[in-house]
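User: Good morning. I'm curious how 2-amino-3-ketobutyric acid would be positioned relative to this chain. Could you predict the structure with it bound?
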Amino acid sequence: MRKPVVLITGAGGEIGHSLVTRLSDAGTAVITLDLTPLDATLAPRVLREFTGSITDVPLLDRLLAQFEVGVIYHLAARLSSRSEFTPVTAHHVNVEGTLNLLEFAQHEGESHGRPVTFVYPSSIAAYGLPSLEAKARAGRVREDEHLQPTTMYGCNKLYCELLGDYYARHYKQLSVDTIPRVDFRAVRFPGLISATTVPAGGTSDYAPEMIHAAAKRQPYACFVRPDTTIPFMAMPDASAALQALAEAPRERLRRTTYNVSAFSRSAEEIRHTVQAAFPNAEISYKIDYKRQGIVDSWPADVDDAAARADWGFAPSYEFGRAFREYLIPAIGSFYAS
Ligand code: AKB
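Assistant: Good morning! Here's the predicted structure, ligand included:
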């Protein structure tokens, strides 16, 4: 008998830390796949950890043989800034890796006779506004608007949303004996801010980097202009959103991909709040015009009404509360320990 479990890819990353903790606290049997071994806080929480790549199909076949996977959270990805240095590798990991996981999900579903829930974190990078004027005019962007990404990562995310929809609704549509077995559900995340992990390779990283540098009493030079505005979310709300979407009744979901967001603030507003919390923080600006161009192409805010209506998305942390009740106390104790 194969064991029924939840699979998390990229489990050692930022979202993975929060999600593994949340699911294991709830008693869920979790198996993980990551390029590097899980750290000592996560490893004891999982039933089995696999170290390897989502591009390694024989490794995925071994997982398939050993476990009955009912839910997949496919978090493994190369983020936006990093992907611009090696776009072909980014495509290989972000697109072919996702394709491998979708095939894996279809085969799992075929072998246990029920659809496998496949939860995919997409990104505001799927959007692309051509200019600051267009960004100001666009306001709160809805899911089907402005889908002209300017980065390899954004193209990868947008295409994988479509691939997921294909596996869920049209997979091998001309074959008489194949039923789609993937129940694909995606959220487009804004920039995420965690108190206990620092992101690597993203372009929204200036906000978490600013906060973590202040907590560590290190000077920080923000790489975007003070007026730069995109939506953000605190990490506990991000992992809660993934779990809520996974658990939502299928018939309530009117879309494949949903916007989610908690607060939209400029870099300067974030700097003020960080300086109020850490009065000795030294935060300056040193603009990286290439990374600036990427963030300028992302919307200043997104409309997440569909997620709120269909599966009850409701973030706990607006801007003030995220700092007061999550980031400041949790970062303080994280670095103190
Ligand atoms: C990135 O900056 O690449 C990510 C994202 C917005 O998806 N944080």
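Residues 92 and 146 are 25 Å apart (CA to CA). The longest strand covers residues 67-74.
Let me know if you'd like a different ligand tried.
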